[in-house]
# Entry
Amino acid sequence: MSAFKTLDDVDVRGKTVLVRGDLNVPVEDGHVSDTTRLDRLAPTIAEIAEKGGRVVLLSHFGRPKGVTPEFSLKPIVLPALEEVLERPVAFAEDCVGPKAEAAVKALKDSQILLLENVRFHPEEEKNDPAFAKALAALGDLYVNDAFSAAHRAHASTEGIARHLPAVAGRLMQAELDALTAALEAPKRPVLAIVGGAKISTKLDLLGNLVAKVDQLVLGGGMANTFLAARGVNVGKSLCEHDMADAARTIAQKAEAAGCEIVLPVDGVVARAFEAGAPNEAVDVSAIPADAMMLDVGPKTAAQLKDRLAKVATVVWNGPLGAFEKQPFDAGTVAVARAAADLTQAGRILTVAGGGDTVSALGHAGVEDRFSYVSTAGGAFLEWLEGKDLPGVAALKR
# Structure
């Protein structure tokens, strides 16, 4: 049995179901430019509607200061949502008060209503008890399907669950199942890949992972910091030299926990951080003083592929190099595709997340070939850091 209550634990027929989704979608030129979050929310909405529930959607959109027309959900998000759902969606001009109450009262079984941006009320982000109670008064059940907002203790993500039976939607359930399988009760050996520019922003994450995984592969700028802490001259590579002691402390924790830290053995170096800049692959012990390492080298990529073939679970956060500029995407792409092939062959479980990670896997063309790719950003990182997420804690049995 799951540690979290889900839609399987409740009967929605004839009930008004408040669904907290994440409709905070990217917008360009007045249109939703990426419907991924809407696509992933759709199964929960459809299931409740098909079972005869009345769906009332709650979400934030942007960071408005009070009622701000440009952050209304109606002109941009509502049409995109109707297109994804292939169903009509009613709209209420507020999320609490007379307008919201009238719109909810007008709903019939299997119909869908979108309430206005919850952040038009400052009480939302303050997790104001009275505001949470006013939201809860609109429904009979609460379904949280916004893992990406679960690290925030806001009225619509945590406070509301104090007043209504609360369960996870299908997207939240999939996210929790994937993360549990990857870190809480994984098949071993477990290999984590962590990339990115700085270790200073990922100290909690690294400290938590070394206690949970068997191998920790480091890439990007943070790998340079660990190499420098070992006495390697990394030239002009991105490196936090003032974090050398922190790197050594993490290495000591890893050794004590039986976790192997894996660093690049070679890298692709260039004198300019530009696409197509003249470059060469060198051993990390031979990085020129006037060059910077912008990607892991072919030897490192080959070794990582061999490691992937010998583990059972892979957790990935952060690219191995400056994948945005070719040819410094080669290492990330090669390793990502190897992980995807092993996943599709049923040999490993792969769970990845974080903004740059999602972009990098998309660039490699494998975002649909991993076991699970989280679009939750900050919530995914806080989970990797071992933190208790308020929106998730509210759903525990």
About this structure: The chain has a mean pLDDT of 94. The CA atoms of residues 214 and 258 lie 7 Å apart. The first helix runs from residue 36 to 50.
